[in-house]
């Protein structure tokens, strides 16, 4: 009996919890459909049709931009400074919810609100959605995630685990995690840090995925992160040859509008 008890204790020490097994499991996928993915030559729509098209093309990671309407509703939109095919005059001023939701992109593509995003995730339980909150400060993050927090009340744990917030400021971390989010993707570039300090921050706070613009890709930064088991995704790339050059310096994956997962498998 004492040997059985000893075995059980040792097993409990060495066996990872279910949370540890699942944490950052989504990073096994190399491609992120940027702004829900491009569709028929159109990008940045964040539309329902773009989401479905990305799903049909084999994506498991779909990024959705989040903005607030003028009356405080949470919708899938890349800010308000451009039309992206919706017929209105942009003045960097948000539309009301009713105006936004009734304006198709390029006359064909259906706008999404947060509730509809959750419904799509219920229908496709293998999909992870990366949330790109549009803002220019941690105050904007706080305002936006206050609405996110309201919308996720009562949402199944399975769906919450598949919502992956992106953060731009280190101050965002406490705000976002206060709403129960576990995995995050840290978009590096709006703060001045060295490769060593970024890697140390990520390691300290268990952030195992970082996003970099093409212009900010630095072999030293990628190497410092790679050594600590932190993966990097570079945005936004639509060329396979260009992706290959980044793979050579241990970049892990990419945001893309049009390269599909089946194509990237040929490079690995």
From TrEMBL:
It comes from Jeotgalibacillus campisalis. The keyword Coiled coil does not apply. Residues 42-259 form the GP-PDE domain. The keyword Transmembrane helix applies. It comes from the Bacteria. It holds the Pfam family GDPD. One of its GO terms (molecular function) is phosphoric diester hydrolase activity. Gene3D superfamilies: Phosphatidylinositol (PI) phosphodiesterase. GO terms for biological process: glycerophospholipid catabolic process. Belongs to the glycerophosphoryl diester phosphodiesterase family. Keywords: Hydrolase, Lipid metabolism, Membrane, Transmembrane, Transmembrane helix. InterPro entries: GDPD-Related (IPR052271), GP_PDE_dom (IPR030395), PLC-like_Pdiesterase_TIM-brl (IPR017946). This is GP-PDE domain-containing protein. It is found in: Membrane. One of its GO terms (cellular component) is membrane.
